[in-house]
Amino acid sequence: MKALKRVGSVAFAVMLCIALLVGCSSNSSTGTGSNTAGSAAKNEKNDSGSKERVTLKVEVFDRGNSPEGMTVTNNLMTKYVQENFGDPNNIDVEFVAVPRSEEINNLNVLMAAGTAPDIIFTYNEGAVYSWAQQGGLMDLGPAIEEHGPQLKEYLADSLQYGIFDGMQYAVVARRVNLQKYSSLIRKDWLDALSLPIPTTTEETYEALKAFKQNNMGGERTIPFGFALAPDSYEPVIWSFIKEQSDEARYLRSVTIGSREYPILMDGHKDALQFLNKLYNEGLLDPDFALDKDKKKKDEHFVNGYTGLYSFDSGQAFGNGESSAVMTLESNVSGAEVAPVLPWTDFEGKNRQPAYNPSGMYIMVPSFSKRTAEAIKYLNWMAQDEVIQYMAFGEEGVHHNLVDGYPVRNSSEEDQKLLYNTGDMLIITNGIDFGSAENNNEYMALSVVEKHRELAIQSRSFADKDAVQQPISFDKPLDSEAKYSVVMLEKYEELLVKSIMSKPEEFDKVYEVTLKDFMDTAGTEVFEERKVAYEAMQQ
Amino acid sequence: MIRKSYVIKHWQLYAMLILPLAYFIVFKYFPIYGVTIAFKDFNVFKGITASEWVGLDVFRDIFSQKSFYVALRNTFMLNGLDLLFGFPAPIILAICLNELRLKAFKKLSQTLLYLPHFISWVIIGGIVYQVFATNYGIVNLLLEKIGLGPFPFLSDKLYWLATYTSVGIWQSVGWGSIIYLAAITGINKELYEAAEVDGASRLRKIWHITLPGIRTTIIVLLILKIGDMVDIGFDRPYIIGNVMVREYSDVLSTYIYRIGLQSGQFSIATAVGLFQAVVGLVFILSANYISKKTTDEGII
Prior knowledge:
The structure holds two protein chains of two kinds.
Chain A: H1 2-44, E1 54-62, H2 76-86, E2 91-99, H3 103-113, E3 120-122, H4 125-133, H5 141-147, H6 149-155, E4 163-164, E5 167-168, E6 171-175, E7 181-186, H7 187-192, H8 201-213, E8 222-225, H9 230-240, H10 246-252, E9 254-256, E10 259-261, H11 268-280, H12 295-302, E11 306-312, H13 324-331, E12 337-339, E13 352-355, E14 358-363, H14 371-381, H15 384-392, E15 399-402, E16 405-408, H16 412-418, H17 421-424, E17 428-429, H18 436-445, H19 452-463, E18 466-469, H20 478-500, H21 506-537
Helix pairs in contact in A: 4-20, 5-14, 6-14, 9-11, 10-21, 11-20, 18-19, 20-21
Chain B: H1 2-9, H2 11-29, E1 40-41, E2 52-53, H3 57-63, H4 66-86, H5 88-99, H6 103-114, H7 121-132, H8 138-145, H9 157-185, H10 189-197, H11 202-213, H12 215-227, H13 235-240, H14 246-249, H15 252-262, H16 266-295
Antiparallel strand pairs in B: 1-2
Helix pairs in contact in B: 3-16, 4-9, 4-15, 5-9, 6-9, 12-16, 15-16
């Protein structure tokens, strides 16, 4: 009996060891195997007529907002995709959730492990560049030629944004609405102070001061709702920039993520000095630097503490009955807002940033074996009826026709099918109704009736003198990709420290923090930009 | 011969050891292979083996970066503050708790003091922002009421250091005191009785009996703590920190996160991690050596 036990224990130990060894070796083989997988993919690319059922893995953002009983990887829309695209093509479409806020970290790890989905996407240009440089992305050109006629037609010009070094490393989604930022001002406050709606930077400044002096929003008045976020600082900064040529934009601004920062341009320092003045006169939230997610800024606005409020275009009126403006009006009786173009530049124009007509980058990792299927999927999505369904569902169930436009009806059915439509219908950001006018009309229909005029005006303001950004080179810049995170942090430091310094110390603080930015990354980036610019001129 | 039969006799015990051993081999020793990334120009798509060797280039790159030294300095500074204020705190608390007469009160306060340990740093971060905000934080509102101006607890570097340290103490002091309380229970009660007969006051008893009684525990924990000097948790500085105090709040762990995960520069992140491990080893060995020389107590 004892002997038997002993044999048993030895066998157990041996088995464990074997299990461990197997575990290890399979681990290491996936690490090194990605190479061969990459080349295998190339051989298999044309092998589209295979009868064997294959699995196509597709990334999807998880924003933690799925209705009960559903997940982003298994819901009514994923079923629609499987039934209408997957089954007819003998493909199992499997969705892979990536948390929205941890997107880049997650994708970096998935790419490194060679387990990223066959279709990945991100808005982060820096990440796309760095994957492309390291050979992690598939050239999609041939596959699009072969399997993506509809996709090509649909995306048209935006496809060019996905070409780096002559290779189509990404399919770039369309972006329909290019407006970036809008501002609102409290009309009732202006009326009470018998001030007009400001039209220049000076008038805006006077209005802000008057808001403060008269404590228009009570003791907590924040004349200018300001957060450490682009929608707060970009409009102000760009209105101070005195240079406009492409050359200046290439040589004296940097691209961080998808934004252009005119750090070395004439006027940048003036902009920060102006903000410094606002801060020291108590016209900004003293804790603005802690408010990176804009929560406080929005909270202050809907609670009626804020006089001037800038935001990502569309945000303040969106969401129908629960829009920010509606909430403000119900919180503060008599509150009234007016769209405003608060900042003017040296020419008296309202120069402000706008988006390029390109949306997110959709890519296939080089180790994927499903390039053909991936393009087929995107091509399928580019059909009118699919776009229609993925954006609006069915008439009478998920949307109603109003003036000929499909307007989602906010019913339970609508929420269930379309709660993450933007993350599923990846080939376009916004729906195009053919013209800017139509798009405006459609946008207005999703706003509560009494605010429609305001919303349309607000949007047209966002178009005025807008400049599409960022200006891009014909190939990715190594240094910009490498330093994108560091540069953003250093830039935020530059902003925060110089805005919050004492007025008499501003010059010194600005100089020191700018030098820090340049030493950490700036100098290297600007040098590379210069070389790239000169190469482009030839 | 005796040894062998001992092993055979208690084979079950050895069998039970297999799992923990397997854990260490698989999750602790095997990944050490990945350290080679620090000496390679690591391309995630080529894998570790196929990436090119670059010798010490990565380290040269790191040691030429100013932000690395800032992160290193901050790591020492924040850990130093924790050592200075955070280390004695649980000892003092344990002694205080031990002196309590009322059992029920002692139990209650112990439980309440443990609680923060179980709250995630993310939540603590939210609370800290609400409580210490310059304009609307409750602390500043109260201070203003008694005529003391608002203090920039979160936005001024020096104030922030105080906030960081005290929040850390608040979070961990209760939990940290458990081990000392356990050590105190192990002290021979007769010693206290004898001291009482000799007319020793409470403080005397604490000084001459309780403290020497838990000396070994203190020293072991101190050595471990010193070994962790270069090793700093990620959550606390990352969450409590903000742009205004980044000069002080950027530590090695957040540096690695930013460079490695966010920017995808795995070679640099690995190299910094390796550097951390090596310095940590040096620290713990020297602390142990000194302690052995001076007090004859150590962990190895």
